[in-house]
Amino acid sequence: MAVSISVVLLLFILAVLFLRNGGLKISHALVCLLLGFYLASTSIAPTISSGLTATAEIVSSLRP
Question: What domain of life is recorded for the organism (predicted)?
Fold first, then answer.
């Protein structure tokens, strides 16, 4: 659960930064939002979740 909240927070911060810099329009953000809700209700959602979890575990195991 902590990974999901972290990813959501990171994506939200990136979206806000893109919106403020003019690189992302409101319409593009809404399309991304709708795509996320659509993907969450499909059968590929568990695969995306496990992929993000595995990526987070790999990144957290790296030592600088």
Answer: Bacteria
